[in-house]
Specification:
Blueprint lengths: L5 E11 L4 E4 L4 E11 L3 E8 L5 E8 L4 E12 L1
Antiparallel strand pairs: 1-6, 2-5, 3-6, 4-5
């Protein structure tokens, strides 16, 4: 087990297509991985990647024929 292992979730929310959603690890922890889910008819996850500072995870998506998409974001955190 990784020291200080913790999964942090930003629950599903509808946002405009291509708008980034970001979840951050608690203070003193860094993101060692992460993921995301796009929800909705014909929803597509466009991006899932760490923040520049390594303390969180970013996700964005789009939904064909709609102006918004449901996005959930997860960060796998560990002690720094």
């Amino acid at each position: 087990m990784v020291d200080g292992y913790q999964v942090v979730k930003l629950p599903n929310a509808n946002v405009p297509n291509f708008q980034r959603r970001t979840v951050y690890c608690p203070a003193g922890k860094v993101a060692v991985g992460g993921g995301a889910e796009a929800q909705g008819n014909d929803a597509i996850l466009v991006g899932s990647f760490p923040t520049d500072d390594g303390h969180g995870w970013i996700a964005l998506g789009r939904q064909n024929a709609y102006s918004s998409v449901g996005i959930s974001v997860y960060a796998i955190c560990a002690n720094h």
